[in-house]
Design a protein that fits this description.
Helices cover 24% and strands 32% of the residues. It is an alpha/beta fold and 241 residues long.
Length: 241
C-alpha cells in the first residue's frame, strides 16, 4: 500500500471467515515470526485487537483491548505473560476494556497519549520507547482522529525480521480515520511523514475492518483508477478464502 511515496510490505488483516454487517470480519488468526508473533483478535462488529508476543521471553502486550475476556482467554491459550496495554486512542471501542482488564490482570502498564484513556498509568508522547520483552516499541504521535492518537511501531532485535506498526484509527486499508479532533494537514503529516517514513517492509495492523466500504468510496471518486480495481479484486478473493 502506498503511503506518502513509501510502500509498506502489507496491510495485515485476517483471512476472512465471516461477514459482520456491511464489513468483513474474521475469526482469530496468528501471524508467526522468529521473534515477534501477532495474534489478531476480532472484537465488536468490525474492530481488531492485537496480542503482540515476544517469542524470546513469552512476554506480551495487547493493543486496544475492548473485549477483556477474549484477551485473557488468548493470553492463557498462548501461555504468555501480559505486561502491557498499548492504547491507540480514548474512544470506547478501543479503550473501553482497559479498566476491566486491569482488574483481571495485575500490574499492567497501560500506555497511551491521552488523559481520557481509561486506567492510563503510563502516558506517552512522540518518540517514547517501550519494551515488551526484547521487542522495541516506538510511540508515534498521529493526532487528527483524536487529539491524542498514538500509533505503535515495533521492531525485534533481529533486524532481518520485518517490523510492524499498529495504526488504530489513523490508517486503514484504502482509507484513513475520520477527522474528529484534527485537521487535514495533521492527517497528511501522519500518513505522509510519520507513517510514510517507516521502513518499506513494515507490516501494518489497523484498528477496523473497513476495507470494502473504503474501496467503494474510492471507486466512486476515481472510477477509472486501476489500483482501486485491483485492490477490490484482492479483497473479493480474500473474502472467499
Amino acid at each position: 500500500m502506498a503511503t506518502g511515496g513509501r510502500v509498506f510490505a502489507s496491510i495485515l488483516l485476517p483471512v476472512t471467515l465471516a461477514r459482520s454487517g456491511s464489513s468483513l470480519h474474521s475469526l482469530i488468526k496468528t501471524v508467526p515470526g522468529k521473534d515477534m508473533k501477532v495474534v489478531i483478535l476480532p472484537a465488536l462488529s468490525d474492530n481488531y485487537m492485537y496480542l503482540l508476543i515476544d517469542e524470546q521471553t513469552n512476554t506480551a502486550a495487547i493493543v486496544d483491548p475492548v473485549d477483556p475476556e477474549k484477551v485473557v482467554k488468548a493470553v492463557d491459550e498462548q501461555k504468555v505473560q501480559l505486561t502491557t496495554v498499548l492504547t491507540t486512542h480514548h474512544h470506547w471501542d478501543h479503550a473501553g476494556g482497559n479498566e476491566d482488564l486491569v482488574k483481571k490482570v495485575s500490574d499492567l502498564k497501560v500506555c497511551g497519549g491521552d488523559d481520557r484513556i481509561g486506567a492510563l498509568n503510563h502516558k506517552v508522547k512522540h518518540g517514547d520507547r517501550i519494551n515488551v520483552g526484547s521487542l522495541d516499541v516506538t510511540c508515534l504521535f498521529t493526532p487528527c482522529h483524536t487529539s491524542g492518537h498514538i500509533c505503535y511501531f515495533v521492531q525485534s532485535k533481529d533486524k532481518s525480521e520485518a517490523p510492524c506498526v499498529f495504526t488504530g484509527d489513523t490508517l486503514f486499508v484504502a482509507g484513513c480515520g475520520r477527522f474528529f479532533e484534527g485537521t487535514a494537514e495533521q492527517m497528511h503529516t501522519a500518513l505522509g511523514k510519520i507513517l510514510g517514513d517507516l521502513p518499506d517492509n513494515t507490516n501494518v495492523y489497523c484498528g477496523h475492518e473497513y476495507t470494502v466500504n473504503n474501496l467503494k468510496f474510492a471507486a466512486h471518486v476515481e472510477p477509472d483508477n486501476d489500483a482501486v480495481r485491483g485492490k477490490m479484486i484482492w479483497e473479493i478473493g480474500r473474502a472467499h478464502v
